[in-house]
């Protein structure tokens, strides 16, 4: 039987219920994280839970959890479900209260839920690359917060799905921000370009790992905005996320990137990523 974490308690899936007036359900008023498990170890858990605590702080959500307590809870859940390779999704909402936009006063207890998912790494796509389409970024201006409000991302991903693409690369007035659930990179003349980690994108943990690899290997990591045209003319393009890892992009809006071939810097970053999986999974 699959266990779900509800606050600090593991319950059977059919018993995991949330209130109709939970603010996560009514307003998307909450935050989340998604942590990867490789070979029974959590990858970059510290970075993920630090980001969760930051997201909580940014939305004025008071929680008692620490990086250590969250890591412990997630380990307990993965172990209970016998998940060794896959991921753990965790969200915390501002809790259940009569519906009113302003925060409940006095505050109510936040509601944490988490579940696990077993799956294999996307080997085929990592080898051959994926297709993306470009679309307007219609989201709010605090994309740095990993909030439950994902309607813009949902609509972008649905647009990609409609056009048989893996991901939608979003742009604001022609400036590439990020994917619906990934960060985006253009590699040109040996330099890795990606949008600065400001309020317009989520500062991806995989993005940070890519930055570490670039630092290790003397590859310039340039955090300056670039256009859709620049992306389409790049030598290599990648997207990254906890589940997609360092994913090559071989077509954009139906046009091939680098003749549809995965390039050498992408391969170098993928190899570096393997080393980080080995050194940063605990
Ligand atoms: C909007 C968005 N950007 C970027 C990312 C990549 O972040 P990470 O590498 O931490 O998974 C995600 C992950 O889900 C995302 O939803």
Automatic annotation (TrEMBL):
Presence of the UniProt keyword Chaperone in the record: no
GO cellular component, one term: cytosol
GO MF annotations, alphabetized: D-alanine-2-oxoglutarate aminotransferase activity; pyridoxal phosphate binding
Enzyme type, top EC level: transferase
Xref: Pfam families: Aminotran_4 (PF01063)
EC identifiers of the protein: 2.6.1.21
Protein name, per record: D-alanine aminotransferase
Species the sequence originates in: Staphylococcus rostri
Taxonomic lineage: Bacteria, Bacillati, Bacillota, Bacilli, Bacillales
């Amino acid at each position: 039987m699959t266990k779900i974490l509800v606050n600090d308690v593991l319950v059977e899936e059919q018993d995991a219920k949330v209130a109709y007036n939970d603010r996560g359900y009514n307003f998307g008023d909450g935050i989340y994280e998604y942590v990867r498990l490789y070979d029974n170890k959590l990858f970059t858990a510290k970075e993920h839970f630090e980001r969760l605590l930051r997201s909580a702080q940014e939305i004025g959500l008071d929680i008692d959890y620490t990086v250590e307590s969250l890591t412990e809870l997630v380990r307990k859940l993965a172990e209970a479900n016998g998940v060794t390779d896959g991921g753990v999704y965790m969200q915390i909402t501002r809790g259940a209260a009569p519906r009113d936009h302003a925060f409940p006063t006095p505050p109510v207890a936040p509601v944490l839920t988490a579940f696990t998912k077993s799956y294999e790494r996307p080997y085929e796509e990592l080898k051959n690359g994926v297709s993306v389409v470009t679309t307007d970024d219609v989201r709010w201006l605090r994309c740095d917060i990993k909030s439950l409000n994902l309607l813009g991302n949902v609509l972008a991903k649905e647009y990609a799905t409609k056009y048989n693409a893996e991901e939608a690369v979003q742009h604001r007035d022609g400036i590439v921000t990020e994917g619906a659930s990934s960060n985006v990179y253009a590699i040109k003349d040996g330099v890795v370009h990606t949008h600065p980690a400001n309020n317009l994108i989520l500062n991806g943990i995989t993005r940070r790992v890519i930055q570490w690899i670039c630092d290790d290997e003397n590859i310039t990591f340039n955090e300056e905005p670039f256009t859709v045209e620049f992306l389409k003319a790049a030598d290599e393009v990648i997207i990254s996320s906890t589940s997609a890892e360092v994913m090559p992009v071989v077509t954009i809006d139906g046009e091939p990137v680098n003749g549809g071939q995965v390039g050498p810097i992408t391969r170098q970053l993928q190899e570096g990523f393997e080393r980080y999986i080995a050194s940063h999974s605990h």
